[in-house]
Specification:
Helix content: 40-55%
Radius of gyration: 30 Å
Strand order of the largest sheet: 1-2
Mean pLDDT: 79
Largest sheet: 2 strands, antiparallel
Distance between the termini: 97 Å
Strand content: under 5%
Shape: globular
Number of strands: 4
Length: 653
């Protein structure tokens, strides 16, 4: 009797429970609680939007025969699962991947071999925009939590969750290493962990391309954020900063470090280059940067980065995640943000170094320069891969905030390359180019004024005795942008012929930036090893040397410019001992010095910083050094073209 009463009360409760009305299209898409006011709900009324409701299609109830069929299928699956429980199936729940080992009685000849087909259409297409024939303009179902529709989680809560997970995984790294669960791809674990530590240490300069939290976690369980291709790309990148001779092909030649890992990565890439994966994108970008700077293989580097950028578009990493078919977790969104902005910066650096158009543009992306997981921000800095002589004081790395400023500066650099170094940049009127220079110069000034205090404390002349290498790289990048912005108004004949005072101001700005680079180089040399500098430091040295050479060629000569130029040559000599690309840069500077008739034989390399304030500039003499009608040797003529085309690399001189 009591059970019947309970059943009756339960039925009455279910009958009395009313289903919540459906939200309108706008509230459903924005995950907000809809009050269902008619004719317009509150959210649509406040935003002056049309309040529309999607027509809900009522699904038919399954028949008794269908229910019986499903129950039989469930029973068969249960019997099959119990029969195969001891066959060696390994399921990793945390990684959501299943690896099934073959039975001992199963021969290789009986295994299923897929039949090759002449073509293989995509079963699941990647990202496509509104103009595509496969684009579906549909309303994305909102995610519900505990049956309540439209719950928005504050960013602060998401940040705490991501930081907590990163802290937990850092502890798990040591545990997984001791347990032997990390996959080093047949590399000695001690060597593998050392190379990984070097890479995480160098990411302060290159940007958080690889999300360490997910990579190291999936390295222990073959998860989707880990691949042997990416692992070997990291090995190859880190070998250049390792002193261990076993990573070299020739123990006596440091330039051969990492060749075995590069060959392994190339072999793995040949099997995965035709499928877009996040780990493949990361591996391609790492290989692209390493191959360009150390091996001077410009074409291969350009093709690798181009393939990675195409995969970024294919996966929709540049787009709003709400437009994708699958809902992404907050951890996945954080990883995609880091990947996009790291790729964006690498693309701008490649465009700068190679003198070619940028391919990953800011205006096509839907990402703000913000990162929620800032666990690395306050990690203590380690000079592991920057010097083996000096010790560094205790200081936070400030890696996330520094990388955020790198991204903001890269956006300005994209404007400079597009407005002043594109193929038809000089087809515009001088007044139009001058106005654009004023606008970009205002952006640079605003960027410099908004720098955080811990970044400005690393600038030359500050009281901080122990700067951070990635902050010095950021400041060097800023001065390169200043030189690139003002240099066309000195080298462009159509510009300085009408605005001579503009040419004088432009070259003064270039000279000031060049002397700032010299200060940064001396500060870096005092604290770290020049052989371990990021390539942007080497490029800034090269760009400033082309300015110092012209200042030193004046009559009477400028002793300060001679000293700064001599120091730039010294830095490039150190770089070319470990980096192939620096060899060509130094050859270009040497040819420019010889062509301008600058003599450095009597100049003594000093530790003191030259003073630019006493340098006198003869703008007419400087303009003649940029003249294309000056007699030059044939071998030098191709590298001394002005910047009327998109040539920033060899042609900056």
């Amino acid at each position: 009797m009591s059970s019947r009463g309970e059943e009756t009360s339960t039925c009455n409760w279910r009958q009395g429970q009313r289903r919540a009305p459906a939200a309108c299209n706008f509230c459903r898409h924005r995950k907000m609680k809809c009050d269902n006011d008619k004719p317009v709900c509150r959210h649509c009324r406040e935003r002056a939007r049309d309040c529309l409701y999607a027509e809900l299609v009522k699904k038919p109830r399954p028949s008794s025969a269908k229910i019986a069929q499903l129950e039989e299928e469930i029973q068969r699956l249960r019997e099959k699962q119990s029969a195969t429980k001891d066959t060696g199936s390994v399921v990793t729940a945390s990684c959501r991947r299943t690896r099934t080992l073959p039975r001992a009685s199963e021969s290789t000849s009986n295994r299923h071999i897929p039949v090759a087909r002449p073509f293989a259409p995509d079963r699941k297409s990647g990202y496509h925009g509104p103009t595509s024939t496969v684009f579906e303009d549909r309303i994305v179902e909102s995610v519900t939590q505990n049956g309540v529709e439209g719950v928005e989680v504050p960013d602060l809560w998401v940040k705490w969750q991501l930081v907590a997970e990163s802290a937990r995984q850092r502890q798990r790294e040591t545990v997984n290493l001791i347990e032997g669960s990390l996959d080093f791809d047949s590399v000695d674990p001690d060597l593998g962990m050392e190379l990984l530590s070097i890479y995480w240490n160098r990411q302060h300069c290159s940007g958080p391309l690889v999300y360490r939290t997910t990579f190291m976690r999936d390295m222990a369980c073959a998860g989707p954020n880990f691949s042997k291709l990416l692992l070997n790309a990291i090995y190859f990148y880190s070998c250049k900063y390792s002193s261990r001779q076993e990573v070299r092909q020739d123990p006596n030649d440091s330039l051969t470090a990492g060749w075995a890992y590069r060959q392994r990565a190339a072999d793995l890439l040949s099997r995965s280059f035709d499928k877009s994966e996040i780990t493949t994108i990361q591996a391609l970008l790492i290989m692209s940067s390493a191959i360009f700077t150390w091996c001077d293989e410009k074409s291969t580097s350009w093709l690798y980065s181009g393939l990675a950028i195409n995969m970024i578009y294919d996966l929709g990493i540049h787009a709003d995640a709400s437009n994708l078919e699958r809902r992404l977790t907050e951890e996945e969104l954080e990883g995609r943000r880091r990947l996009f902005w790291a790729a964006y910066v690498i693309d701008k650096m490649q465009s700068l170094y190679q003198g070619r158009p940028a391919r990953l543009r800011n205006h096509v992306a839907d990402h703000t320069v913000s990162f929620l997981d800032d666990y690395e921000e306050l990690e203590l800095f380690s000079p592991l891969s920057y010097t083996d002589v000096h010790s560094h004081g205790i200081a936070p790395t400030y890696s996330i905030s520094t990388f955020r400023e790198v991204c903001r500066l890269s956006i300005i650099l994209e404007k400079i390359l597009q407005d002043f170094y594109a193929e038809r940049a000089y087809s515009r009127s001088p007044s139009n180019m001058l106005q654009q220079r004023i606008d970009v110069e205002a952006d640079l000034c605003n960027w410099r004024q908004c720098l955080l205090s811990h970044i400005m404390s690393n600038s030359p002349g500050s009281i901080n005795p122990e700067p951070l290498p990635h902050v010095l790289s950021l400041l060097a990048m800023y001065n390169v942008a200043v030189i690139l912005l003002h240099r066309p108004f000195v080298s462009g004949a159509s510009l300085h012929s009408e605005y001579l005072t503009v040419a004088l101001d432009a070259f003064s700005a270039c000279t000031t930036a060049a002397f700032e680079v010299d200060k940064i180089l001396r500060l870096y040399e005092q604290s770290f090893c020049l052989k371990a500098t990021p390539y942007i430091i080497s490029y800034a040295t090269y760009a400033s040397a082309t300015i110092h050479a012209r200042t030193a060629s004046q009559n009477p000569p400028s002793p300060n410019a001679h000293k700064a130029l001599q120091h730039c040559l010294h830095v490039l000599e150190v770089h070319e001992s470990v980096c192939w690309s620096a060899k060509r840069a130094k050859r270009v500077v040497d040819r420019l010095i010889a062509d301008l008739g600058v003599v450095l034989d009597g100049v003594i390399l000093e530790n003191s910083t030259p003073d630019f304030s006493s340098t006198i500039i003869d703008i007419n003499e400087i303009l003649r050094t940029f003249s294309r009608n000056r007699p030059r040797s044939n071998i030098d003529r191709s590298m001394m073209i002005g910047l009327s085309t998109h040539s920033v690399g060899d042609n900056i001189s």
